[in-house]
UniProtKB/TrEMBL annotation:
Residue span of region Disordered: 63-82
Protein's name in the database: Uncharacterized protein
Keyword vocabulary terms for this entry: Membrane, Transmembrane, Transmembrane helix
Keyword Membrane attached: yes
Superkingdom of the organism of origin: Eukaryota
Composition bias type Polar residues, residue spans: 63-75
TM ranges: 7-30
Length: 82
């Protein structure tokens, strides 16, 4: 009976540790603090390339401002994005 009891005790201890780790993991993952808020950010924007500035078959380097949308009068386009 000593060997069987020792074996069952070891197996029970192992199962208990695994169950405890699993429950602890679930409590750690699913009990996040509710007061933590992550700020949102604007998407970076898009580049508008005026085609009249491009010359065919000529390599050139240009820099353009990033804009939120293609409306030139939109107030969101005034914000620096890059």
């Amino acid at each position: 009976m000593g060997l069987v009891g020792c074996l069952l005790g070891t197996i029970g201890f192992g199962i208990g540790v695994l169950i405890g780790l699993f429950i602890g993991f679930l409590l750690f993952i699913y009990n996040e603090p509710a007061d933590v808020k992550v700020g949102t950010h604007d998407k970076l924007g898009m580049q508008i390339v005026p085609l009249r500035l491009l010359i065919p078959h000529k390599t050139q380097e240009s820099s353009f401002n990033l804009v939120k949308n293609t409306n030139p009068n939109d107030s969101q386009n005034k914000k620096r994005r890059g």
